Amino acid sequence: MSWIDEVETPCYVIDEQKLKKNLALLKYVREKAGCKILLAQKAFSCFREYPIIAEYLDGCTASGLFEARLGYEEMAKPFGRENHVFSPAYSEKDFDEILSYCDHIVFNSPAQWAKYRDRVRASKRFIQAGIRVNPEYSEIETDIYNPCFHGSRMGTTITNFIKQQELTDGIDGLHFHTLCEQNSDVLVRTLPHFEEKFGFMFDKIKWVNFGGGHHITRADYDVELLIKTIKDFREKYKLEVYLEPGEAVALNAGYLVTSVLDVTENGVKIAITDASAACHMPDVLEMPYRPNIIGAGEPNEKPFTYRLGGNTCLAGDVIGDYSFDSTLKEGDRLVFEDMAIYSMCKNNTFNGIPLPSIYLLENGKVKLLKKFGYEDFRGRLG
Ligand SMILES: *Cc1c(COP(=O)(O)O)cnc(C)c1O
């Protein structure tokens, strides 16, 4: 990987070959299962790759106003693809703009749909509307990623759906999203809960969106079981099926390259890097998880163990403990894997730390897509 020394750190590097490999598998699922697959932009919204993504997928979905605009301008409009949006609640002031970008609008409650129904139906654009439901079944252990935890605001439960049923008139589809980094067996166990509760609606609608969280491009994912499950569902109910994975689109398709700035010691050996968990890989602290580094092992697995920490003043800006074959010194480069997703679209400039540049890796060569500067920091502050 000779390109590692050519980039300026810290930087994200998008591996286009790996992205295309993921996309090819997703296209295979689309074709075999006869379903539609959208990119969930909240995980990966490097729009410079949208021309490629549009060759393989049916479109994209957004979680907010600006993602909806990005999906429209960079994928739906130039490539004739679909543009969907879901929001826990739409605001009056944004809704006309949403209407101008989106083909599918998913509402979180019957009341939200009823509130905006006339505006949707009066729109010049043909728009399909859906309601997100909560099947009250999930196998996610961490509450922050579990849309079905007790008291969750995500989706309408069957009790509330029935209470407000007269407000659901005219909807075109249902949406549920209850998976997170899961295999197709979890979908198989989830579907009966959805069918049992909401099946009475199936002759009134055209499509069902199975949401995201399908880890389709992970090595041990059972793709054939997913295909069979979707085909069976489509044939049984004569409904169109959508999936909207985020992670699976760019899983393992990018890196974060960092340089060691200093090495210190406090009971453990510590290396300070120019990449920060808090600023540049926030999911490491939020999820939390320990990202892999190429060539490094678990603590004490290799001879030299270090705690890696970022260059912010947050005491907890710790990436994790890793072991290496040789000692670390200033200027050494480390490559974190699987950094295309939930990184570029989620980073921040806390502490005035510069944003990492973005490179594209194509045919073994790196190309700089974007370098950020002081204006990107200052511009959001007033
Ligand atoms: C987060 C989310 C997705 C994408 O989830 P991944 O885990 O990245 O696949 C899709 N749809 C909705 C509604 C989401 O909230």
Task: Summarize the structure in words.
- By secondary structure, the protein is an alpha/beta fold.
- The chain has 2 domains: 2-13 and 254-339 and 347-378, Beta Barrel (Lyase, Ornithine Decarboxylase, Chain A, domain 1); 34-250, Alpha-Beta Barrel (TIM Barrel).
- Helices cover 30% and strands 22% of the residues.
- The chain has helices at residues 16-33, 50-56, 65-79, 92-101, 110-122, 158-163, 184-198, 223-237, 247-250, 277-280, 283-286, 374-378; strands at 11-15, 36-40, 59-62, 82-86, 104-107, 128-132, 173-175, 207-209, 240-243, 254-265, 269-273, 304-309, 318-324, 333-337, 357-362, 365-370.
- Strands 1, 10, 11, 12, 13, 14, 15 and 16 form an 8-stranded mixed β-sheet that branches.
- The chain starts with 10 loop residues before the first strand and ends with a helix.
What's this model, at a glance?
The chain has 382 residues and is of the alpha/beta class. The protein has 12 helices and 16 strands. It has helices at 16-33, 50-56, 65-79, 92-101, 110-122, 158-163, 184-198, 223-237, 247-250, 277-280, 283-286, 374-378, and strands at 11-15, 36-40, 59-62, 82-86, 104-107, 128-132, 173-175, 207-209, 240-243, 254-265, 269-273, 304-309, 318-324, 333-337, 357-362, 365-370.
